[in-house]
Amino acid sequence: MTNKIDTVIFDLGGVLVDWKPEYLYRKVFNGNEKKVQWFLNNVCTSAWNAEQDGGRTIEEGEAAKIAEFPEHEDLIRLYYNQWHQMFSGPIEENVDLFKKLKASGNYKIYALTNWSAEKWDKGLELFPFFKFFDGVVVSGQEKMRKPFPEIYKLTVDKYAINPENTIFIDDNEENVIAAKALKIQGIHYKSPQQLLNELKSHKIIF
Questions:
Q1: Each residue of 25-47: pLDDT tens digit?
Q2: What's the confidence (pLDDT) of residue 1?
Q3: How far apart are CA 13 and CA 172, in angstroms?
Q4: SS (H, E, C) 131-163
Q5: Burial 137-147 (b: 16+ CB within 10 A, else e)
Q6: What is the pLDDT of residues 101-144, one digit of tens each?
Q7: Tell me, what's the pLDDT at 10?
């Protein structure tokens, strides 16, 4: 018998908002997908971005990458200078779901996000609904990130969460597996309908 869920933790990028560096660099490279993918797989990689999400300053991250690829300095600086262009907007079905869960009063609703501390204020400006959570843990502010267990433990302790009564939703399966290792129930997000179906299977009431 599963525990009654009283807490839901959302990832943000990829679950509630659509964020992809491709959206910016497709404009930069005039839709040349081969150039876009080469740049994002070799220069401004997801692993490089994760260091900023984990607390490294943007200035430090840029300096390290420019030292490696001096010929691409302008393109590297664009990553954070034009970071807002990496969003296509909210994932409306999931934001509506989040708002219904919040309005029901049946659950505590938190966010746990890998996000640069220096870009968090801009995130709040772009997506004001981020302010509606009962609490938010931003990796860059804490200088730790998913999927490392420390950030899950910090979230649980900070908000006095019972892991076994909690569902964590993330589009990165590695992050969900890490949560499950700490007895947090997890949903690997793939689509709005799949998320709705899985929440219903956990007897979540909207």
A1: 999 999 999 999 999 999 999 99
A2: 42
A3: 10
A4: HHCCEEEEHHHHCCCCCCHHHHHHHHHHCCCCH
A5: bbbbebebbbb
A6: 999 999 999 999 999 999 999 999 999 999 999 999 999 999 99
A7: 98
User: Distance between CA atoms of 188 and 194, rounded to whole angstroms?
Assistant: 9
User: What residue spans define the domains of the chain?
Assistant: 7-16+91-201, 19-86
Asked whether residue 5 carries a pLDDT value surpassing 80, the answer given is yes
pLDDT at 72: 98
Taking the mean position of all CA atoms in its chain, how far away is CA 182? 19
CATH placement of domain 7-16+91-201 = 3.40.50.1000
Q: How far is Cα 187 from Cα 171, in angstroms, rounded to an integer?
A: 8
Q: Alpha-carbon distance 72 to 54, whole Å? A: 24
pTM > 0.85: yes or no: yes
Q: Which helix (H) or strand (E) holds 97?
A: helix 92-104
Cα gap 107→133, rounded to integer Å: 11
